[in-house]
Amino acid sequence: MRLIQLFKKELSHEARIWVRDELVSEQQANTILARYGTSLSDDTDKNSFGYYLLMSLGVLFIGLALILIVSHNWDEIPSSIRTGSLLLLTLVTNAVGIKLFLSQRTRAGIIWLLFGGMSYGASIMLIAQIYHLGEHFPDGIFWWAFGILPLVVFTQSRLLALLSLGLASIWLLIESGEDFFPALYPIFLFVTLWLTLFQTRSRLLFLGCIAGLLVWINLGLAWVMGSGYHFDPFAEQFPFSLGLALLINGAAWWLMRADKSDWREYGLVLHILLLRAAILTLLVLSFEGVWEEYSSDRNWLSVISVIFIIVSGIVAFRLSRASGRYASLPVLMLTGYLALSFTLVNSFSHMEFIAAIATNLMLLLMGILLIRRGIDQSETHYFYTGVVVLLLTAFIRYFDLIGDYIGGALLFLVAAGILMAAAKYWKHHVSLIALKQGEPSE
Amino acid sequence: MNTMTIPGWLHKKPGKRTIQIGLILTLCFQMAVLSVEYLGSVLPIWTGEEIILKTEPVDPRSLFRGNFVRLNYEINRIPTEPHTEFKIGGVVYVSLVESKGIWQFDAINSAKPRQGTYIRGRVRRSDSGTVQVEYGIEAFFMPREKALKVQNEMGGQAQVRVFVAPDGKARAVGFQCLGDAC
To answer: Which residue, A185, A272, A302, A437, has most beta carbons within 10 Å?
Structure first.
């Protein structure tokens, strides 16, 4: 899937100009745009969206102002009146929102429901203040997020989903910070994923769900290791997380081949983010010291973590194979490299040096593959990412030698050999294609 | 292209009647949450016995909770027998006895005592020889200036008026006046 899919609105805007200038007919423009899952009518109501956005922010500010006004005279107002006012505010704002939403004034209804959701949350927190509740306060944030969640199902509003997921994620962090496991967090993920996959499109919410899922799984692993009483993070969580990233990348390639244009878009965004994350991780792992920091002995956890990487790699390969070699080859390379490096470091002493060398060679291969992919698919993003990977690797290794000067020089020579071999192979490959097509090659 | 059979209900938009009922039930749910929170807060005050507990106030501020004085009660840290273990997060009942107008620790049990004054709490931490218990009365909300005044003037000598319901649930209602702060 091509990166242009991420610029649908701009494409639609350009196509409207082509139609206006009579370069293409309306039908032709729509046919072209349909290839990218959009149409001429897409994004025409941006003025109304601007109104909606500003109104939503206005509601947020009114809510904050209201809380501050009430807080100003908080102590002077009897507690029963304070509580009653809060209940009334929540009731009225939500009731107005429901009435507007049901009378087909959807956007106005959602703005009021957003205000209602804020009032509901403020009420939970302020009632706790009035009566000096010192109980486990993250519960308040959970009930706030949970109270808004059904609104997400019935209104299918992205704004309310963002509020609900945002609050749930804050709860996830605070609850785990207080040494409790946020077991109910996946409820919010399921609802938000259902919304983004089957009802409406939102890259932000989809990516938020994936990030939330990764954090929750990691917290779960640490919780299990703490026997379900406290968090006990362990070194092997790192290879587990890398295995998960491999799996998600496989799923991203699968999504990029889906029928629905929204899913293809999610897959592409996910893949690009994972690609950048993979490069950053490899750059960090290219330092010998980082492998020394990763202290893990050979135990059942380290064995399971390597098995998990291999299984994830196989699943990811199966999911990405149909998308071609630029999808499946990096999966195989990364799986092999990660499984080998972690096995060596876990099983033998003084293997950090070998793991760091393997990481640097991996960076080289990634760079070459990205440049190749960029040229093959005429995508400058991949081409320049590949160039940056190679330059960064060279830059980092020049200032942070692995071993002594001779060792560093040897590494650069090996890198040069790989780059030249790749260039030669490429030239040979292009000649073969030209020969098949009956054209003279340069 | 991947083709996948997705159950129809995942794609189905809820009908108008479902939305109507769902939204009204959601509003009822929100009001129920607020009502339960309110009733849970006031019931110990309406039905409970007033006691005085010794505490040490510390002034923190929370993004979600505002300004409050954190109260470290004497009964938050309870000495136990060296090999006694309490489950983290488990409910415990702490029996209290009055001595010179102040209620103090008498005994700790996992089961509800049959008589006497007792307060219900949850085990937060359990080390050898001590168990840390929280009773839901560890925060006292007030403006920042007043909170600082309480901390400075009362120091380690603060006394808090607490209502304890028959089931052991407690609610702090105010400081016992020891200076300008209360």
So the answer is: A185
d(CA A257, CA B2): 6
CA distance A12 to A46: 12
Predicted local confidence at residue A106, as pLDDT: 87
Is B64's CB within 8 Å of A137's CB? yes
Q: Which two tokens stand for residue A276?
A: 């950048």
In degrees rounded to 5, what are phi and psi of residue B146?
-70, -35
Q: Which of residues 22-81 of B touch A (CB under 8 A)?
A: 22-27, 29-31, 33-35, 37-38, 41-42, 62, 64-66, 68, 71
Taking only residues 146 to 175 of chain B, the set having a beta carbon closer than 8 angstroms to any beta carbon of chain A reads: 171-173
Which of helix, strand or coil describes residue B77?
Answer: strand
- Is residue A334 within 8 A of residue A277, CB to CB? The reply is no
Average pLDDT by consecutive 10-residue portion of chain B (182 residues)?
A: 70 87 96 94 90 79 68 87 78 90 89 90 84 88 74 72 91 73 49
Residue A442: pLDDT over 50:
no
Nearest chain B CA: its distance from A127 CA (Å): 7
**Residue A131 clears pLDDT 50, i.e. is over it:** yes
Residue A258 carries which DSSP code?
B
Residues of B in contact with A114 (CB under 8 A): none
Mean pLDDT of all residues in chain A? Answer: 85
pLDDT for position A441: 46
Residue of B nearest to A90 (CA): B31
Q: Are A176 and A182 in contact (CB under 8 A)?
A: yes
Backbone phi, psi, residue A373, to 5°: -65, -40
